[in-house]
Amino acid sequence: MLEVVGAFAWYGLRVIELRQTEDFDLGSVVLGRTRAPGEILLYEQPAREAARLRDFMRFDVLLHELGHHLLQHRARKVGNIQRRSDHERFADAFAAQWKPVVQAALDTSHQRVLDGR
Using an 8 Å Cβ cutoff, are 11 and 73 in contact? Predict the structure, then answer.
């Protein structure tokens, strides 16, 4: 997936970490988080509908957090940054732009494996 998006988006990214859910505010659901510098955290979710949840985490949450990473890296922010509405819009737009591209590339790759190519 990262190869499809390109190095411009993940340059400086050091780790994508899968984590157990932490004790967050009871009124919120946290799926992922970007920490500075170069860390993306994805939190476990209930296992119901595992395939759909896997795709959501991969195509929506991870791409959204990658958008935050790109914005943070371009601005050369080295500490935790306060999320503003323009940051969220940028991350949402980044994910929306890249989701169909990544899905198509992964579908093509998967089909090649099935075809034995």
Answer: yes
Threshold 0.90, pTM exceeds: no
CA distance 111 to 117: 9
Provide the residue-wise pLDDT of the chain in tens; the chain has 117 residues: 888 999 888 898 999 998 887 766 667 778 888 887 789 999 887 666 677 788 888 889 999 999 999 988 777 665 555 668 888 999 999 999 999 999 999 888 766 666 666
Residues in the chain: 117
Is 66 within 8 Å of 94 (Cβ atoms)? yes
Rounded distance, CA 10 to CA 86, Å?
A: 20
Query: Please, are residues 71 and 87 in contact by the beta-carbon 8 Å criterion?
Result: yes
* Alpha-carbon separation of residue 109 from 51, 64, 103 (angstroms): 18, 23, 10
Residue 66's Cβ-side half-sphere holds a number of Cα atoms within 13 Å equal to 26
* Residue 61: CA count within 13 A, CB half-sphere: 22
Contact 58, 96 (CB under 8 A): no
